[in-house]
Every structure is written in C-alpha cells, then in structure tokens.
Amino acid sequence: MREYNFGAGRPDPSSFPSGELAKAAARVIAEHGTALVNYPDGRGYTGLREIAAKRFERSEGQAVSLNEIVLTSGSMQAMQLITEAFAQPGETIIVEEHTYGGSLGVFRGRQVQMASAPIDGQGLIMDELEALLKRLTDAGTPPRFIYTIATHQNPTGSILPLERRKRLLELAKAYDTLVVDDHCYGDILFGSEPAPPTLYTLDTDDRVVYVASFSKILGPGVRLGYFMAPNDLQGRIMENKRDGGTNALASMIVAEYFRDHLWEHISRINTIMKARKDAVVEGLATHFSDMAEEVWWTDPPGGLFVWVRMPDATDTKRAMALASERGVSYASGQGFSPANEDIPYLRIAYGFPSLEDIQDGVPILADCVKVAQRTAVAV
C-alpha cells in the first residue's frame, strides 16, 4: 500500500547532502581524526559552535560569545537539561495551550505541572499570560519558566510579533521567571521579511535560554542541537550534562559542510518547503470547500507544519484509523495538548512527503475527516 507520511517534522530526503557530507567526512577524518581519541570539549566541538554563532549573528545582527553556546544531542537533550535545572517535580511551568509534543513529553517525564496559556493566530496572548502569571503567583505556585516557540510555532506556525515579545520579557521580569525560547524552526522562512528579533536578542535581564537545532534543516538522524544561555543559567544547566560530550565526529562533519554551504543549504530547503506548504494549503482549500465554515487551517509563513481545525463533531480517533487504513499518517491534536485532551485538530507535516504524495494524500485525509463526522455531512 502506498504511504502518505504527514506525521513527523523532517526535511525532504532529496535535500540531504549525502555526497558533500561524505567529502566533508573524508577531509575531517584525514585532518583531525586523531583528535577523536579524546573526549569532546564540555560545550561541544568549537568549529560547530562557531557555525552556530555565525548563524545567529547573520540572522539577528548581534554577536554572541562561543562560551554562550553548548552543543547537545538534538534539541530534546537541551530541553531535558533545562527542565531538570530549573523545575523540580511538582513545580509549575507555563506552556502554550497547543505546543510541541516532544517538549510535553520531557515536562511530563520531569513530573512538572503545566499551566496552559491561551494563544491566537499570533502566538501567546499577553493579557491572558499576565492573568495566568498573577493567578499562579497568588496561589503560591509561581512558574519556574515560560516555554514558548515564538517563531514558527509548532504546531500552529505562528510568529509572535515584536511588541508581544517585548511584553513577554517585561512580564517575565515582573514575575521573576525565566523564558525558554525554542527556536528550532527559525531558519525555515518563506517570505523576504525576516521574523522579529529572538527573545534571546531582546533580553537585557539574563533570563532567556535559547534552544536551536541543525536537525530541521539537515535531518533528525544527525542529532545535533544546542542551547545558548548567560553564564549563571548555563552553569546550572551544565550540572546535569554528564554524557561525556556531544558527538565530536558528527559535529566536525556538519561544521565542515556548513562552513561553506550553510546559507545555500537553507535557501534550498526553504524553496522546497514553500512549494510543499503551498500544495498542502491548496489541497485543503479544494477538498474542504464544502466544509469551509466548519474547517479552517493555517497558512504559515515558515516552519514545517499546517495546523487544521476539524469540526467539533469529528470522531478524531475514527478519522485517524480511517486514514491509517488508506496509508495516510498525521499527528493528532491530542499530541499537542498539555492536558492530553482529545481536541478536534490535526497537524500536517509537509517537509518529508513529495509534492505528488501531498497532492494525492490530502484528498484522502479530507475524505477520512468527512466520513468521521458524528453527524450527517455530505461527502
């Protein structure tokens, strides 16, 4: 049976630079292979941290010290280290009402309490966040940190506007809490207008930890992410990093490739991703045209995902089962709910499937959603 994989956030397999990485690996091993008999630097391979610093400076117009950057085994290790450093079991953190399931898994594993902050099409709603901060503080459960995906939010794709970013930092200072800014999708931008400065760039009070990844532009199998944090915060995070160091060979190879190809690679990825996103949005508009008042979806300016709101009458489990029977996989809304609620949403990841798979798979998905209505809907 043909498969249509809209589940995980991965880049197009054809974009993986196998040949160039093989050449980079040969050069690295020939020139630096003997260094691999040693453990890596505690913060990770300097060459890849230099790439991360240049990446940040070019996009943000602000230099960062290499000492602020720590490489990790994917961004999930960074999230785990950050959570262990700042939130004890039973303590409270604030998350967006729909957010990345991988991070939710980390928070649940740490047994922290998650308070959901409402979001709209532009991300966190500041008045609602302020009210939540006040309620938690008055109840004696002040949040240890606010976790946000301010740029290309997962799953919604929204970008938090500049004024909201500034207000978020003001609130964090007023309530003396930290902000964890998950910026893993920041490079994937479809228009010419850049996203607002990151929260890390705007921070003047040393209370933001920035998380990023090379996986979203290269491949999750590489398992290379990083975080940036001021010295005091970084020291607390590093207390829990006992892995002997992040993979030096992988770091060397990726650094060697990105030294000359980073921006060319990002440009190619963005071109591919935009075409796929457009195909998903066009397919949804065509195949849900008879349910235009009941179904809506995002048209994100970047990132890897389209977020679809299904009718309240949708039997979400039946829709997923029907889709699976016909070879279509996607992420259910429940996976992005901090309370693990069965909500009438689904997420389409468009990076991995081909254009042909999108064009053929979206109609099947739409048909399954229609069939899964608990009330009569014309199909």
Characterize the structure shown.
By secondary structure, this protein is an alpha/beta fold. It has two domains: about 120 residues, Aspartate Aminotransferase, domain 1, CATH 3.90.1150.10; about 240 residues, Aspartate Aminotransferase, domain 2. About 40% of the residues lie in helices and about 15% in strands. Strands 1-13-14-12-11 form a five-stranded mixed sheet, with helices on both faces. Strands 2-10-9-8-7 form a five-stranded mixed sheet. The chain has a two-stranded parallel sheet with strand order 3-4. β11 and β12 form a beta hairpin. It starts with a strand and ends in an 8-residue tail after the last helix. The mean pLDDT is about 95.
Which descriptors would you attach to this protein?
14 strands, five-stranded mixed β-sheet, Aspartate Aminotransferase, domain 2, 379 residues, alpha/beta, Aspartate Aminotransferase, domain 1, 11 helices
